[in-house]
From TrEMBL:
Name under which the protein is recorded: Acetoin dehydrogenase
SUPFAM superfamilies assigned: CBS-domain pair (SSF54631)
InterPro entries registered for this protein in UniProt: CBS_dom (IPR000644), CBS_dom_sf (IPR046342), CBS_domain-containing (IPR051462)
Keyword match Methyltransferase: no
UniProt entry keywords in alphabetical sequence: CBS domain, Repeat
Pfam families listed in its UniProt record: CBS, TTHA0829-like_ACT
CBS domain residues: 7-63, 81-138
Amino acid sequence: MFVKDYMTKDPVTVTPDTPVLDAIRLLKEKGFRRLPVLKNGKLVGLVTEKDLKDAMPSKATTLSVWEMNYLLSKLTVEEVMVRNVLTIPAEAPLEEAALLMEEKKIGALPVMEGERLVGIITVTDVMKAFTEVMGLKEGGMRVTVDIPDVPGSLAQMAQAVVPSNIVSVVTAGKEGGYRRIVLRVVGEGMETVADRLRAAGEKVVDVRKG
C-alpha cells in the first residue's frame, strides 16, 4: 500500500496571487478543505478553509460593506497560506503518511514526485485504506486471537483456519508475551472457525460476524 494508490491525483491548485475570495469560492464549489499553492509549477504553500475564513473580517467590524469588499478584493492567498509545507513522496508507504499526519497533527500532505506536485493525501484517504486493510467490505467473520509472540505462531494459527480463507490479518499490539491478531475470515466453515482455533489451543478473544 503506497501513497500513490490512495491519493487524490492532480489536485486543484491556486497561485499566490489568487484573491482570497476566489479561493473560498473554489473550495465551496469543489467541496475541498485545502488547496496547494503553486508558483511557476512549484509548490510554495498550502491554504486551508480555516486559513481563508480566519482572514475574513470579524462580524463586529466597524467597516462598511464597501470597505470590506475593497479590502478582501486586495487580499491574496499568499498573505494567508502556510509556507514550508510538509510533503510526502508518491512512492512512500501509506503508513508513513499516516504517522506523519498523526505526529504533526495535520489533515493532509501534498504528494510529490521530485519537485512536481502529483496529488494530495488526506486523513479521509487513510481511513478508506484502513477499511480496506481490515476487509470490512468482504463480510465474513472477524476473529480476534492472542498468539504467543514467538516465531511460527502465526503460521500455526493460520493452519487452524482452514478450510476457511483469511482475507485480512492485522496485528494490534502485544502484552504479556502475546501478540493480538485480528483476522477476517470468509468461505467454507467460517461459522465454526473459532471452534477450530480453540481446538488447536489458540486463545480466541472475540468473534463477530460482518
